[in-house]
């Protein structure tokens, strides 16, 4: 008891509450801000509104009736329209609250003082965020130090690897050069052979296509009639078998498409979409997107699948699904392959997503569309559209040549890489560094800024890339660690007018993973960037964090004890205020 | 999967999506000329109908007769009935029973128990006429040509068929050579099979001596209906057909989302109301004739079932209509606060940010709304789990600050057999059918959709089961509902709605029930919330009043819930037209309504938005809403000045909640509207009959909205016969009809006046929500009339349950007379249980307007307490700009009787 009373006194002093002997708790002006306490001292039993507009009896302060136009006479009640209520929120952060929120049934202040009806003090719980953040930081630090240990353990292996590469890289280069030579020769030979075959194939296909085109045109009119007839048959069948009625409708729909191919009339769905689109340009808001071919296939597939798997109407349904397939085939022959320019332009990913659960595989009768790669061949004697639209077109097989070409390109790339590696390991083989930095060997990071991206690889090199054009400027080669291992330096980069050649300083700090951010140019052509790595973490900092945690917990415990000790006094204060407010009418007001 | 979709998949043109339009599309909608029944009947005079004198029989309150159309070769007979329910008359003309199926009549819109009001005729016949009277009302039925005149106290109120435009298209068989359009009509490629052929009804009526007619919502046009017919007038007739009209125009005869076939005619000493009890499509022509306003009214099908409300005052007409179709359901108090809506608050974080924004800027609001995007693919009563992963916690969190949420639930049901609502309703065959009897498949927000047949009581019963949290997953007791698109809107249907030959319960055609469809859906949803509220462990023994906002409406909607005026636009013209739109709804029995504050389409600037809030706080239903593609417009996004002005406006709404809630109790008891045209309160001043730019809220507050950009001053009509006190300054102005008061305006407020003679209760403490005001004391504004008197009242109850209907309420009356303010029990209409409610609520302040301000006063209450009184300028923080006499901290208990005497001079100690 003695201790807590002492603490209470201290706190009263520290909050600049009236230090005179009459500073009885009941004189505390509810809701008053600490720096305004003096204004709430009665002067000859009077109170003057802060704006000076009025002087009133002091007992009218916080009497639950608004007298001051500036709302200053009622800091602790809701009587004034624009009052401000101060809550001390001991153990958390003080808060200024509009008096609108005082005694409104909602606990706004964590110390609960805004509600006479009483709220739980949650200030210490509010601090849990701070506590949890500290705990998370400690945990992260521990993990980082562990990673740092692993880095150090890998050091010998890293050094050995570089040594070996330095020894072997010349041999690898020679072997690759040889391989490339052979592939280049093969490629040249195959190119000549393939060209001869291609001419023959082209001629044959052109003849076949012309023949099929004539047949197709003759069949077009007939197909429409067939489709309609099929639909009619389907309808008749459906009349006998109710369960199959939906599939019949599908066939009818397909027939409708055939008829509509020549002269397009608005469908029910198009009409619905057109009206929906009046309300919003957002297609997602105006009904599910589905006009891409992907969705069409899925829809058709689901429809057929539904019909086929319907146990109750199995026979009728499979008959109808054949009718439907046939009708659809005829229509496809007339209007061309399902892949067309429109659907290629639409956003397939979106429409697939919008189609949602309709992710069945495509129907077996649907041919794969000709690949784009074939359409940019030179001197194509037939109209591309008509060939592409011809489902019976057989593509030319040149896969052997393609493979050899790819292999040759790969060998070239590999050779370039090996030559780069050779230069690098030559620089790295004699480097000395602390073991923990081994984890950064050849690790590359980048920091993207609005105009440029800054890239660097530890122990290797750094550069600046223009986000617009992709132009790359060298910021130099690895120089080493400086300033006690808090900075990694690259220098000797591209020429800089009136300044030393470009360089980059990487400011290293402790972090659970490697990251780079916030690049800048502190001096002309001398760049800086921040980066984190576990390798930069230090054991004594962990100790410091753990100490912080311990003192935070101790503080909280002390606060909780203080708050509990003050609670009785707080309740007494509230009771006095409550009596004043609720019993206001009982006083003679004159 | 439907065939329409499969077809469109292959062929749909890219244009489907990307056409941007920007106006009302006239070509999507019919005109009289392209609508067979209207074209056949509009303006047709000289029909030959007569009453068979031998057939006239009177039995108590009912006259029956046979009405003969002698025009066809074989005359056609109809049955006529004329009934009196006290001051309300009812005229019915129907087919005689035959082999034809009878005409449709709405089974359940009229209030039960009307029969008990039947009043016997005192009648007498001559060879050519029958004359009967009930009370002050006399009717004269002329046999040939058929004519019916109604007089009130000897003055003619309405005359039917004076222009011989009465016609009933009788049942017939299809024959070769029948005129085109009798048995089939096509509009924009949609065929209407019309199996019953022509069946329209036309009737003309004139209102002798009247200058204007009012009513027949919903449309965006003037309060006093402009002529559509007659010499030098070329106009479409007014149309009553519930339609989802994209970007409606601000001045048009065209019918919008709802229909109430009620018209009022007014002249000095006589207001007359007409209600045609029929849900089919209607057209109304208005003509200014020599004798007064003359109208022709045509409906496509159903029967002639006309009610005449004989008034004679405007208030009595609204009350008589309330007797017929019911009065406004008592709303939950929260629903009278401010509603914040947007298409769409996009996820939980957005919802929390908006909620926190109101507290941060200290602006009150009660309800946060979620539009269609919150659902999983427009499957209503589901949630998009990426955007709203924790809907229950979200609602609980927002409710922890005393607020509610609303989600949208529309009548189109996504045709997806994995969607439980669709699956169950489809299995039970609960959807509207096409003429061939198959489940109708239309297009709306979710794509392919079916529509619940809510005309079927069984379907409504099933629908009402869907709102408990076990069915509506992710809902909580803090969640209420919004019904949109219930005209019904069908994107690929004729005129964006259903085909008229679709079939409903009992094989009734859609044409017969179209205008009442939305009402039934609204009703079923509200019944769902009532059912949800019957869970005693959650809601207590008195349940929970439903809150369901609807867009479509019909007669009777007032018993169910509020409506709003649909998709308006952020334009000054739409701000202006919202006033006559809401006034008209009030006159026709549906006062709980409002327009979207700010305008749905487009982006309001700070000035328009401010003016809209300043007006919107007086709409009975007060909601801000905005289109998906508009800029954000929460009240704090337009700079500090605008934030402050909107804050003050919304706080003003909350301060008036006690008055508004009391006004709701009045309309709940009598049918009298909240927002009233000036002529409604001052019916004998013809100069007010056309005024629609200002209005009264209840009897006591006159509002003059500012409806023009950059307005520097406004002309205010203050009606004669009252003193008006400017609300912010307290200055008194005598009323002078015909001599508008020109007043300068500023952006901080619009002109508002207290009417002398009325006491207005307020709660002046700004709070974050209506719930947070529950324990706050009241202020009484006593505005004295010329003789120093004023009266007012204050109604309170628990604000949420049905306990009030069992007597758990307080209704207090205040009278100020001879310097004494008394508080006692407000007399109640017969049949209302006496009210008791334990309450500690107090009056904290009495502001008296109209006393000399320079004098000193004290006040003494009956409990012998003295109260200090201040008078003069700046005496009250609420009247900082003006003067008044203020009795401070009176702390008088609301629940007990007392009186407070105001004394001149300073009292002795």
From TrEMBL, chain A:
<keyword id="KW-1015">Disulfide bond</keyword>
<keyword id="KW-0175">Coiled coil</keyword>
<dbReference type="InterPro" id="IPR036607">
    <property type="entry name" value="PRKCSH"/>
</dbReference>
<feature type="signal peptide">
    <location>
        <begin position="1"/>
        <end position="23"/>
    </location>
</feature>
<feature type="compositionally biased region" description="Low complexity">
    <location>
        <begin position="249"/>
        <end position="261"/>
    </location>
</feature>
<feature type="compositionally biased region" description="Acidic residues">
    <location>
        <begin position="368"/>
        <end position="379"/>
    </location>
</feature>
<protein>
    <recommendedName>
        <fullName>Glucosidase 2 subunit beta</fullName>
    </recommendedName>
</protein>
<feature type="coiled-coil region">
    <location>
        <begin position="535"/>
        <end position="569"/>
    </location>
</feature>
<dbReference type="InterPro" id="IPR009011">
    <property type="entry name" value="Man6P_isomerase_rcpt-bd_dom_sf"/>
</dbReference>
<feature type="region of interest" description="Disordered">
    <location>
        <begin position="192"/>
        <end position="211"/>
    </location>
</feature>
<feature type="domain" description="MRH">
    <location>
        <begin position="442"/>
        <end position="539"/>
    </location>
</feature>
<feature type="region of interest" description="Disordered">
    <location>
        <begin position="330"/>
        <end position="408"/>
    </location>
</feature>
<dbReference type="InterPro" id="IPR039794">
    <property type="entry name" value="Gtb1-like"/>
</dbReference>
<dbReference type="InterPro" id="IPR028146">
    <property type="entry name" value="PRKCSH_N"/>
</dbReference>
<dbReference type="Pfam" id="PF13015">
    <property type="entry name" value="PRKCSH_1"/>
</dbReference>
<dbReference type="GO" id="GO:0006491">
    <property type="term" value="P:N-glycan processing"/>
</dbReference>
<feature type="compositionally biased region" description="Low complexity">
    <location>
        <begin position="282"/>
        <end position="310"/>
    </location>
</feature>
<dbReference type="InterPro" id="IPR044865">
    <property type="entry name" value="MRH_dom"/>
</dbReference>
<keyword id="KW-0256">Endoplasmic reticulum</keyword>
<keyword id="KW-0732">Signal</keyword>
<feature type="region of interest" description="Disordered">
    <location>
        <begin position="249"/>
        <end position="314"/>
    </location>
</feature>
<feature type="compositionally biased region" description="Basic and acidic residues">
    <location>
        <begin position="399"/>
        <end position="408"/>
    </location>
</feature>
From TrEMBL, chain B:
<keyword id="KW-0732">Signal</keyword>
<comment type="similarity">
    <text>Belongs to the glycosyl hydrolase 31 family.</text>
</comment>
<keyword id="KW-0256">Endoplasmic reticulum</keyword>
<dbReference type="GO" id="GO:0030246">
    <property type="term" value="F:carbohydrate binding"/>
</dbReference>
<comment type="pathway">
    <text>Glycan metabolism; N-glycan metabolism.</text>
</comment>
<dbReference type="InterPro" id="IPR011013">
    <property type="entry name" value="Gal_mutarotase_sf_dom"/>
</dbReference>
<feature type="signal peptide">
    <location>
        <begin position="1"/>
        <end position="23"/>
    </location>
</feature>
<feature type="domain" description="Glycosyl hydrolase family 31 C-terminal">
    <location>
        <begin position="671"/>
        <end position="760"/>
    </location>
</feature>
<feature type="domain" description="Glycoside hydrolase family 31 N-terminal">
    <location>
        <begin position="89"/>
        <end position="285"/>
    </location>
</feature>
<dbReference type="InterPro" id="IPR048395">
    <property type="entry name" value="Glyco_hydro_31_C"/>
</dbReference>
<protein>
    <recommendedName>
        <fullName>Glucosidase II subunit alpha</fullName>
    </recommendedName>
</protein>
<dbReference type="GO" id="GO:0090599">
    <property type="term" value="F:alpha-glucosidase activity"/>
</dbReference>
<dbReference type="GO" id="GO:0006491">
    <property type="term" value="P:N-glycan processing"/>
</dbReference>
<feature type="domain" description="Glycoside hydrolase family 31 TIM barrel">
    <location>
        <begin position="328"/>
        <end position="663"/>
    </location>
</feature>
<dbReference type="Pfam" id="PF21365">
    <property type="entry name" value="Glyco_hydro_31_3rd"/>
</dbReference>
<keyword id="KW-0378">Hydrolase</keyword>
<dbReference type="Pfam" id="PF01055">
    <property type="entry name" value="Glyco_hydro_31_2nd"/>
</dbReference>
<dbReference type="InterPro" id="IPR030458">
    <property type="entry name" value="Glyco_hydro_31_AS"/>
</dbReference>
<keyword id="KW-0326">Glycosidase</keyword>
<dbReference type="InterPro" id="IPR025887">
    <property type="entry name" value="Glyco_hydro_31_N_dom"/>
</dbReference>
<dbReference type="InterPro" id="IPR017853">
    <property type="entry name" value="GH"/>
</dbReference>
<keyword id="KW-0325">Glycoprotein</keyword>
């Amino acid at each position: 008891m003695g201790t807590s009373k002492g603490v209470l006194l201290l706190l009263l002093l520290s909050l600049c509450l009236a230090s005179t002997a009459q500073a009885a708790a009941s004189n505390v002006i509810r809701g008053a801000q600490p720096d305004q306490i003096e204004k709430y001292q009665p002067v000859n039993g009077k109170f003057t509104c802060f704006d000076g507009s009025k002087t009133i009896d002091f007992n009218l302060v916080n009497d639950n009736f608004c007298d001051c136009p500036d709302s200053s006479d009622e800091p602790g009640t809701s009587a004034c329209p624009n009052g401000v209520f101060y809550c001390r929120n001991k153990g958390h952060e003080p808060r200024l609250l509009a008096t609108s929120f005082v005694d409104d049934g909602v606990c706004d202040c964590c110390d609960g003082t805004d509600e006479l009806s009483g709220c739980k003090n949650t200030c210490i719980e509010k601090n849990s965020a701070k506590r949890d953040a500290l705990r998370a930081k400690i945990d992260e630090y521990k993990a980082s130090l562990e990673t740092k240990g692993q880095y150090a353990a890998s050091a010998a292996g890293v050094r050995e690897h570089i040594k070996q590469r330095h020894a072997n890289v010349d041999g690898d280069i020679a072997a690759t050069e040889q391989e490339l030579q052979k592939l280049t020769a093969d490629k040249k030979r195959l190119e000549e052979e393939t060209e001869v075959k291609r001419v023959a194939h082209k001629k044959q296909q052109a003849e076949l296509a012309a023949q099929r085109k004539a047949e197709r045109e003759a069949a077009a009119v007939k197909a429409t009639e067939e489709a309609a007839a099929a639909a009619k048959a389907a309808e008749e069948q459906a009349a006998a078998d109710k369960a199959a009625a939906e599939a019949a409708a599908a066939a009818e729909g397909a027939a409708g498409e055939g008829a509509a191919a020549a002269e397009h009339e608005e469908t029910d769905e198009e009409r619905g979409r057109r009206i929906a689109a009046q309300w919003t340009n957002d297609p997602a808001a105006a009904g599910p997107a589905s006009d891409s071919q992907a969705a069409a296939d899925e829809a058709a597939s689901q429809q057929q699948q539904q019909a086929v798997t319907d146990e109750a109407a199995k026979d009728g349904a499979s008959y109808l699904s054949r009718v439907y397939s046939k009708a659809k085939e005829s229509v496809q022959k007339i209007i061309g392959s399902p892949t067309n320019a429109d659907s290629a332009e639409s956003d397939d990913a979106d429409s697939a997503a919008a189609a949602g659960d309709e992710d069945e595989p495509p129907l077996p009768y649907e041919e794969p569309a000709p690949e784009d790669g074939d359409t940019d061949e030179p001197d194509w004697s037939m109209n591309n559209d008509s060939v592409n639209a011809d489902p019976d077109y057989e593509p030319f097989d040149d896969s052997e040549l393609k493979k050899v070409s790819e292999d040759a390109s790969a060998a070239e790339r590999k050779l370039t890489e090996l030559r780069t590696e050779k230069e690098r390991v030559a620089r790295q083989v004699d480097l000395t560094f602390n073991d923990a930095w081994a984890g950064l060997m050849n690790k590359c990071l980048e920091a993207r800024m609005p105009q440029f991206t800054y890239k660097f690889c530890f122990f290797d090199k750094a550069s600046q890339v223009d986000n617009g054009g992709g132009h790359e400027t060298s910021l130099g080669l690895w120089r080493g660690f400086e300033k006690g291992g808090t900075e990694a330096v690259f220098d000797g980069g591209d020429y800089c007018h009136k300044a030393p050649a470009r360089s980059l300083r990487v400011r290293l700090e402790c972090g659970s993973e490697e990251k780079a951010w916030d690049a800048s140019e502190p001096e002309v052509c001398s760049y800086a960037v921040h980066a984190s790595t576990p390798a930069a973490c230090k054991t004594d900092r962990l100790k410091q964090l753990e100490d912080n945690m311990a003192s935070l917990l101790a503080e909280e415990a002390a606060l909780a004890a203080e708050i509990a000790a003050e609670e009785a006094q707080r309740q007494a204060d509230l009771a006095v205020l409550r009596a004043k407010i609720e019993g206001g009418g009982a006083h003679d007001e004159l | 999967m439907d065939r329409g979709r499969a077809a469109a998949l292959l062929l749909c043109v890219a244009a489907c999506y990307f056409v941007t339009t920007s106006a009302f599309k006239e070509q999507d909608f019919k005109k009289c000329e392209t609508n067979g029944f209207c074209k056949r009947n509009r303006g047709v005079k000289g029909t030959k109908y007569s009453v068979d004198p031998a057939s006239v029989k009177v039995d108590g309150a009912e006259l029956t007769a046979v009405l003969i159309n002698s025009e066809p070769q074989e005359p056609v007979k109809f049955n006529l009935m004329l009934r009196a329910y006290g001051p309300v008359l009812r005229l019915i003309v129907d087919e005689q029973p035959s082999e034809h199926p009878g005409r449709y009549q709405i089974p359940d819109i009229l209030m039960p128990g009307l029969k008990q009001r039947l009043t016997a005729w005192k009648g007498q016949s001559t060879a050519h006429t029958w004359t009967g009277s009930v009370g002050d009302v006399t009717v004269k039925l002329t046999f040939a040509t058929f004519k019916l005149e109604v007089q009130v106290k000897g003055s003619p109120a309405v005359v039917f068929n004076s222009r011989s435009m009465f016609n009933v298209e009788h049942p017939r068989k299809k024959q070769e050579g029948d005129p085109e359009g009798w048995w089939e009509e096509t509009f924009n490629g949609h065929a209407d099979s019309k199996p019953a052929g022509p069946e329209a009804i036309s009737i003309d009526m004139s209102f002798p001596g009247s200058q204007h007619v009012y009513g027949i919502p919903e449309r965006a046009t003037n309060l006093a209906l402009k002529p559509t017919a007659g010499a030098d007038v070329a106009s479409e007739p007014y149309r009553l057909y519930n339609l989802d009209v994209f970007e409606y125009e601000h001045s048009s005869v065209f019918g919008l989302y709802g229909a109430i076939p009620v018209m009022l005619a007014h002249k000095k000493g006589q207001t007359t109301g007409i209600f045609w009890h029929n849900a089919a499509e209607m057209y109304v022509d208005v003509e200014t004739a020599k004798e007064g306003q003359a109208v022709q009214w045509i409906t496509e099908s159903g029967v002639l079932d006309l009610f005449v409300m004989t008034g004679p005052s405007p208030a009595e007409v609204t009350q008589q209509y309330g007797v017929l179709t019911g009065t406004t359901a008592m709303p939950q108090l929260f629903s009278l606060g401010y509603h914040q809506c947007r298409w769409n608050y996009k996820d939980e974080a957005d919802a929390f940010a908006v909620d926190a924004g109101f507290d941060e800027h200290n602006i009150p609001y009660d309800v946060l709304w979620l539009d269609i995007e919150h659902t999983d693919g427009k499957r209503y009563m589901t949630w998009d789990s990426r955007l709203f992963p924790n809907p229950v916690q979200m609602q609980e969190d927002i409710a922890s600050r005393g607020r509610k949420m609303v989600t949208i639930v529309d009548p189109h049901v996504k045709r997806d057999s994995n969607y439980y609502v669709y699956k169950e309703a489809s299995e039970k065959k609960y959807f509207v059918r096409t003429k061939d009897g198959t489940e109708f498949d239309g297009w709306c927000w979710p794509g392919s959709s079916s529509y619940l047949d809510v005309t079927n009581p069984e379907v409504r019963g099933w629908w009402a089961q869907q709102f408990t949290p076990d069915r509506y997953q992710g809902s909580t007791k803090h969640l209420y509902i919004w019904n949109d698109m219930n005209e019904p809107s069908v994107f690929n249907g004729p005129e964006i709605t259903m085909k008229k030959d679709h079939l409903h319960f009992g094989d009734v055609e859609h044409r017969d029930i179209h205008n009442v469809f939305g009402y039934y859906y609204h009703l079923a949803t509200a019944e769902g919330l009532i059912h949800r509220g019957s869970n005693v462990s959650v809601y207590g023994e008195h349940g929970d009043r439903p809150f369901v906002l609807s867009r479509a409406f019909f007669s009777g909607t007032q018993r169910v819930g509020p409506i709003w005026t649909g998709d308006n636009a952020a334009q000054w013209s739409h701000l202006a037209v919202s006033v006559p739109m809401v006034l008209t709804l009030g006159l026709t029995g549906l006062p709980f309504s409002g327009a979207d504050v700010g305008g749905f389409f487009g982006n309001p600037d700070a000035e328009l938005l401010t003016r809209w809030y300043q007006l919107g706080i007086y709409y009975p239903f007060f909601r801000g809403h905005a289109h998906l593609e508009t800029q954000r417009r929460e009240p704090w996004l337009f700079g500090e000045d605008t934030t402050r002005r909107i804050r003050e406006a919304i706080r003003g709404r909350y301060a008036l909640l006690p008055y508004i809630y009391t006004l709701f109790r009045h309309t709940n008891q009598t049918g009298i509207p909240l927002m009233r045209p000036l002529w409604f309160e001052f019916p004998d001043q013809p100069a007010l009959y056309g005024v629609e730019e200002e209005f009264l809220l209840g009897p006591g507050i006159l509002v003059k909205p500012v409806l023009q950009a950059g307005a520097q001053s406004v002309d205010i009509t203050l009606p004669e016969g009252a003193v008006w006190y400017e609300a912010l300054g307290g200055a008194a102005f005598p009323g002078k009809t015909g001599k508008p008061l020109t007043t300068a305006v500023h952006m901080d407020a619009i002109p508002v006046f207290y009417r002398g003679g009325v006491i207005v209760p307020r709660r002046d403490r700004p709070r974050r929500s209506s719930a947070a005001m529950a324990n706050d004391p009241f202020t009484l504004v006593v505005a004295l009339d010329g003789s120093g008197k004023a009266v007012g009242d204050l109604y309170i109850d628990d604000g949420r349950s049905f306990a009030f209907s069992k007597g758990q309420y307080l209704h207090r009356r205040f009278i100020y007379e001879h310097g004494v303010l008394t508080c006692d029990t407000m007399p109640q209409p017969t049949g209302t249980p006496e009210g008791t409610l334990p309450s500690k609520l107090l009056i904290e302040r009495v502001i008296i307007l109209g006393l000399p301000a320079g004098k000193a006063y004290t006040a003494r209450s009956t409990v012998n307490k003295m109260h200090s009184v201040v008078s003069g300028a700046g005496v009250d923080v609420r009247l900082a700009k003006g003067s008044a006499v203020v009795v401070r901290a009176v702390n008088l208990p609301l629940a007990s009787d007392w009186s407070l005497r105001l004394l001149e001079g300073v009292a002795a100690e």
